[in-house]
What does this fold into?
Amino acid sequence: MRVKVFISPRKGILDPQGRAVEQSLHTLGFESVANVKVGKYITLEVAAKSAADAREQAQRMCERLLANPNIEDFAFEVSE
Amino acid sequence: MRVKVFISPRKGILDPQGRAVEQSLHTLGFESVANVKVGKYITLEVAAKSAADAREQAQRMCERLLANPNIEDFAFEVSE
It folds into this structure.
């Protein structure tokens, strides 16, 4: 199964990379851009008996390694 | 409009962060995990006349700043 994980800095947490990207976009002429957040996009393959099994593994991977629960939110998608 | 950008190391490009995550997942017991790639997940808001306008702006942002065309692939989604 293929898993896509989306990790974002939690609302209210300082995101200096997002601030830097936002300022650069303004400088390039994209003046209306706001609320830029820079997180991580992780893709992987995992052996699983079912989509539910893959989702359960993905949830545990996020909780145990991929995301920092103190400052990041995560979501994921599972596909064949 | 809200834009989500997904940036991944291109196939064949060395991804040391992905290798490190993959090894850590194996160590944690997720032994079947393979092909881990670590990229960037960027979310932002942009003023746009239409979804097509937002997509056109997002394409240009990726080409001009967000993605490195030499080593990364990008995709994006636009929503209200």
In short: Chain A has one domain: 2-79. Chain A touches chain B at residues 4, 6-8, 18, 21-22, 24-25, 28, 30, 32-48, 57, 60-61, 64-66 (CB under 8 Å). Residues 2-79 of chain A form a domain with the Mth169; Chain: A , fold (CATH 3.30.1280.10). Strands of chain A lie at 2-9, 34-45, 72-79.
